[in-house]
Structure formats: C-alpha cells, structure tokens
Design goal:
- The chain is an alpha/beta fold.
- It folds into two domains: about 230 residues, Rossmann fold (3-Layer(aba) Sandwich), CATH 3.40.50; about 180 residues, Orthogonal Bundle (N-(1-d-carboxylethyl)-l-norvaline Dehydrogenase, domain 2).
- Helices cover about 40% and strands about 10% of the residues.
- The strands form two sheets. It has an eight-stranded mixed β-sheet. A two-stranded antiparallel sheet has the order 9-10.
- The longest helix has 18 residues.
- The radius of gyration is 22 Å and the shape is globular.
- It starts with 6 loop residues before the first strand and ends in a 15-residue tail after the last helix.
- The protein binds nicotinamide-adenine-dinucleotide (NAD).
- Nicotinamide-adenine-dinucleotide (NAD) binds next to helix 1 and helix 5.
Length: about 425
C-alpha cells in the first residue's frame, strides 16, 4: 500500500495516550493529542482555551516528566499539539492515522467513533488501543469506509519501550491496511508486530492478565506478601522487575480490573475462568481511587525517602490496612518463611529455565505458580489454537507470511532495521 503517515491524532491523553503521542513524536510525526474537557471546569473558565485544555496539557506534562522518559529528546514535545474533543475534533480531518486511546469502556469508545466517522476524511486509518474489548464490537453503526479502515493496534505500557505491538483486524478490515501496519509498526515504530485474532484480550493480555489475576488469587491462598510476590514474579520468572503488584500500579487498577472482568464475561467456558476475579483487596484500591501511579498511589506509594543512589523509595501504601482490616488480604513481610527468602538467590541464575524452577521450588510455590507461566499456558491446545493463527494458514486476503504471527523483522533476525530515533531502545 502506498501510504505515508505524516500526521497522527491520538484520542485520549491518559497513561497510554500520552505515551503513544510521545512515541509518535519520537519518530518524527506531527501529533494531535486530544482529550475531554476538565470535569472541574468552572463557569468563568468556559471561554478560556487554556482552562479547556487543562486536562490534556497536565496529562502530557505528567507523562513527559515520567521515567523511563517517553521522549527521546525533550525538544520533540513541540511536535505534539494538544486540544479537546469539544473544540478540536474536526482537526482530525487532515490526519493520516487516528488512534483511539480513551478509557476501557465500549460505550464511550463507540460514541467517540460516531463523531470521528463524521469528521475523518475517507481512507484515513482509524485504530483502537483497547486492551481487551473485541474489536468488531466497536463497528456497530459505522460507515463502510470506517469499517474498512479500522483495526486494533495494541501498544503495551510504556509504549516507547515495550516491544510488542498487536495488530488486530476484523473480518471487514482492508487486508492492505493490516499489511501496512505489520510493516509500519516494525520499520518505523521499532516494534515487534504480531498479527492477532479478534479474540477477547487478544494474545498478550489473554495470557498476561490471566497470570496477573491468578497470582492475585494465589497471593491470598498462599499467605504471601506483595513484596514477596513481586520478588518472585519479576526477573526470577524472566519478567520485568515490576513483578505483579507494581505492574498493576503501572497499568492502572481500573483498566486492569476492566480487562479481568472483560475476559471473565467473554470467556465463560475457559478452563481457568475461576481465576478472573477482582479480589477484595483490589476492590479496596478501586473504591478508594488508589488506581496506581496515575493517582500517585496503588499497591505502592512513593515516599520522600531516597536510597543510596538518590532514587525515591516507595512502600506498600495500604498493606497495614489490609493486614488488619480486610479479609483475604495479602500478608505482611514479617510472615515470610525462611525458604521463601531464597527467592532472590534462585532468581539470579543466568539461564531462565533453571531460574524459574529454582525460584519456585526453593519457595515451595511450584504447584501454585507454575500454571501462570506462559510455557505452561501454551500446553493448553484449546486455548492456544483459539488464540493464534496457525502458521501458513491464510486468512482471506492476507498473505500466509503475515499469518504466521511473526513479522518480517523477526525473520530477518539481526538484519532488522530500526528507526533512527529509537535505535538504542532496549530490545
Ligand atoms: N494502562 C495500560 O497499561 C494499557 C496498556 C495497553 C492498552 N491500554 C488501553 O488503552 C486505553 C486507555 O487506557 P489508559 O491506561 O491510558 O487509561 P487512563 O485512565 O490513563 O486514560 C483514560 C483516558 O480516557 C479519557 N476519558 C475518560 N472519560 C472519557 C469519556 N467519557 N470520553 C472520552 N474520553 C474519556 C480520560 O480523560 C483519559 O485520557 C484503554 O482502552 C486501555 O485498555 C492500557
């Protein structure tokens, strides 16, 4: 497809929207970042553009200051113009790609798409960054041109650094558009693009959110503390050091809970359906708006104390309350058994397989935790065949090469080209 993306509109400036806008600016795109009017807008502020754009501007500023840095160079922020859905939505008219990144709520997304459908020029790509809402459900009432140019483009958090980009077409998506994004994500955005079926939560979250929900359950059942679980479910299992609870804080607990509930609703017959529950202690966070890093507090809260390198320390923000007040809450660090204190040493083994075994066996946690490992998950043929497109089996109109779920970049191996401004990113 002969298409060039020069300008992109990002609709929603929260955790993901701001991060995606920055990553687009990193690769040289002109970016339009829009969001809702501030809910606390006063009567006297209603004619002030600065006040009307307060929410989006604050969100972008918050993102730019966050670590790891979303912008390669702070000067690239000048490539991002901000605005709001009331005053500026018609500006999407000269954008080549519109990506929706608003709250994980189908009705809200659909109502935004209705307006976008009226304002976008025909042929403009329009995609959703939803974590788990089936993509085809967003098409109800949309024009033929919209349907043809619509698919899921699922970035992971933080968008500049996480390598995976899932491309999720519907049955109506133009195969040329799918082909375009598989290549564009790889060559220009510096991602590993993976073609997904439009199944609930696609591939990454279908596995990862299952692991998260199951680990939340096991935390209570096995009497573990949140620090122990994070120590165990980070590098010892070949995962990022955010582990499980810190990852929840990074993602945002409202979003994570919606994905858990979405999978539960859409996969009632899954063999692990019982895992997809929001535990009492997570509900406690939701009820108190302790949504994670975006509200300054979740399972952890940053303190004014600093470590020897000057980095701010964070502590479990609510563990005291859980330990004393909430039934089924994670336990305190004081309850660690000696065997569980061996987790960090097992976790330092260089090779992943013995590291995983060592960490889980030494902590006597293998029976509980092993089903959460992707390797174990892959043993379930029903779920996996339902999730991935079999190698070489063509989807109508899409080449067999793309159907392997492996992008051209990985096939080229070390010859993989990366965009100039993201070349140094961790692989
Ligand atoms: N947080 C993650 O790690 C992550 C990762 C991948 C995908 N996603 C997906 O990206 C999307 C955004 O998630 P997020 O984490 O950035 O959420 P967020 O809570 O940080 O941001 C939500 C955004 O939606 C806007 N919004 C709220 N109410 C609205 C309304 N009525 N109409 C229009 N906009 C409204 C907010 O102002 C905000 O900009 C969701 O679909 C989520 O599932 C999130």
């Amino acid at each position: 497809m002969n298409k060039r993306i020069k300008k992109a509109a990002v609709l929603g400036s929260g955790v993901m929207g701001s991060g995606i806008a920055c990553h687009f600016a990193n690769i040289g795109l002109e970016v339009l970042l829009l969001d809702i009017l501030p809910p606390d807008l006063q009567e006297h502020e209603k004619t002030s553009p600065a006040a009307r754009n307060r929410l989006v501007n604050k969100a972008l500023e918050f993102a730019i200051k966050s670590k790891p840095a979303p912008l390669y160079d702070l000067a690239f922020a000048s490539r991002i113009a901000t605005g709001n859905f009331e005053d500026d939505l018609e500006k999407i008219n000269d954008c080549d790609w519109i990506i929706e990144v608003v709250v994980e709520n189908l009705d809200i997304k659909k109502s935004l798409f209705e307006k976008v459908d009226r304002l976008r020029k025909p042929g403009t790509f329009i995609t959703s960054n939803t974590s788990g809402i089936p993509i085809h459900l967003m098409l109800e009432g949309r024009s033929t041109d919209f349907r043809r140019h619509f698919c899921g483009t699922h970035f992971f958090n933080p968008p500049r650094y996480l390598r995976l980009l899932e491309i999720i077409p519907t049955a109506e998506t133009d195969p040329e558009m799918v082909h375009f994004f598989m290549e564009y994500g790889d060559l220009y955005l510096g991602k590993q693009t993976v073609l997904c079926k439009d199944t609930p939560a696609f591939i990454g979250n279908r596995i990862g959110v299952y692991a998260m929900a199951k680990i939340y359950q096991l935390t209570t059942q096995l009497g573990l503390s949140i620090e122990e679980v994070d120590a165990l479910t980070g590098p010892p299992l070949g995962r990022p050091k955010t582990g499980t609870f810190r990852l929840g804080d990074l993602v945002g607990h409202d979003t994570a809970a919606k994905v858990i509930q979405g999978i539960k609703q859409n996969c009632p017959n899954d063999e692990q359906a019982g895992a997809f529950e929001v535990p009492a202690y997570l509900q406690f966070l939701l009820d108190n708006k302790f949504l994670g890093n975006k509200t300054g507090q979740g399972f952890f809260k940053k303190t004014s104390q600093k470590d020897e390198k000057g980095a701010r320390l964070s502590w479990p923000s609510t563990s005291k309350r859980w330990n004393t007040n909430l039934p089924g809450s994670p336990t305190s660090p004081a309850s660690r058994t000696p065997s569980r204190s061996t987790i960090p040493s097992a976790g330092s083994l260089p090779c992943l397989k013995p590291r995983i075994k060592g960490a889980l066996w030494s902590a006597s946690l293998w029976p509980g935790f092993s089903p959460t490992l992707p390797t174990a998950f892959r043993k379930s043929p029903t779920t996996c065949s339902a999730l991935t497109t079999p190698c070489g089996q063509a989807m109508p109109g899409i080449s067999a090469r793309l159907n392997t779920g492996i992008s051209s970049a990985s096939k080229r191996g070390s010859r993989r080209r990366k965009p100039r401004e993201t070349r140094w990113l961790p692989g």
